[in-house]
Amino acid sequence: MLRTNNFRGGGIVPSLNLxxxxxxxxxxxxxxxxxxxxxxxxxGTLRTAAVNEPRFEYDPISGKLLGLxxxxxxxxxLLQSNSLNAFATNGNGIxxxxxxxxxSPDATNNATLLSITTAGSDSGLRTTNAGMTPSTTYTxxxxxKANTGTILFMxxxxxxxxxxxxxxxxxxxxxxxxKQSNIASSSIVALAxxxxxCTITATTQATIGNNIVDVKITDADNGxxxxxxxxxxxxxAQLEVGSFATSYIPTTTxxxxxxxxxxxxxxxxxxxxxxxxLVMNALKAVPQGVVSRYYNFLPATGANxxxxxxxxxxxxxxxxxxADESGSTLFSGTSPxxxxxxxxxxxxxxxxxxxxxxxxxxxxxxxxSPGSMPQFASLVLGNNSLNGARSLNGYLQRFTYYPRRLSxxxxxxxxx
Length: 416
Known about the structure:
Blueprint: E1 16-19, E2 30-32, E3 37-40, E4 46-49, E5 56-58, E6 65-70, E7 74-76, E8 88-90, E9 94-102, E10 111-118, E11 120-121, E12 123-127, E13 137-146, E14 151-156, E15 166-170, E16 175-179, E17 185-190, E18 195-203, E19 213-218, E20 225-226, E21 231-241, E22 256-258, E23 262-266, E24 275-283, E25 293-298, E26 306-311, E27 318-323, E28 329-334, E29 344-352, E30 356-360, E31 363-368, E32 378-381, E33 394-402, H1 408-414
Antiparallel strand pairs: 1-33, 2-23, 3-4, 5-6, 6-33, 7-22, 8-12, 9-10, 10-21, 11-20, 12-19, 13-18, 13-21, 14-15, 14-19, 15-16, 17-18, 23-32, 24-29, 24-33, 25-26, 25-32, 26-27, 27-28, 29-30, 30-31
């Protein structure tokens, strides 16, 4: 049996205990990613992990370990993304860009100074051939830092014909300003050294008139004018298909794709086919309504049976599901609608034929009596399957399996 410590459930020793909060991979796990990928280390510095290197990411402000990052495949469509050098200066004033002006989040002197030399409106940087396709949701993100200016304005012109296509960000207070009507969401995340990652998400028009994204300076929230002498630092522009930003993907002369993270383990002597309890801690990072899976037990062949934990399609909740060989549900349990983005969830699924229960954050939220226990061959962590469908886009923290069906009071205690 695989054991990593003596964490016990009512005197029962787990047969598998994967503690990702130690910052190391258990040797029984299989992990792969077919490309490099970025993450923040314990000093708040943006680092690059090599092909097949796991990414244990830290909160860039607190330095606290978040867990093992599992993401779907994404592509950054913007070229020369570090410096934004593929963006041209644009506007009614006279903006300028100075390359290699200060240290960026990756601790290299490669960030760009965007400044206004002559006052005017709508002034900054623009790329005019972003390559977006109609009726598609895109997320635009830029790292930015205040200098003599403090207000960043980001716009995706392909999402509107009326000009309501951008959002403002205050780089002095770390707050989101006005969000125009065609922007579905906007966010700002604090990093080390006064940097912020600013993000907007919107859907392009059915017919795109201008395939343009802007990164600009303004004097005030919900304004377009920029005074001479105002400047901010920018770095790491990213445009990707999807309703939320993923980890930064550096580009040079062509778009770059970061491959999905895949983590799995074959079931061995640690797994009991007739009964068992799975306790899992994870940090939810995706917005409400994004379907993703935390784990999935799979058969040797075919798609079913399955035992999985997934985010809800519409609400801030998770559901555990046990399905038979035909895909019919044998048991399910759903958490309350309280698992907001950024929250850590502690779940436990205790299963055996005729007696199942599901607990979340100290409460039993589902019980059932399935007629049988399906047989499984492998376990995928952070995905629906090995092809990366429904990736977690979040952080695995702990995964503990007991080869017995633990009692309901015990699974309540283990998830508090």
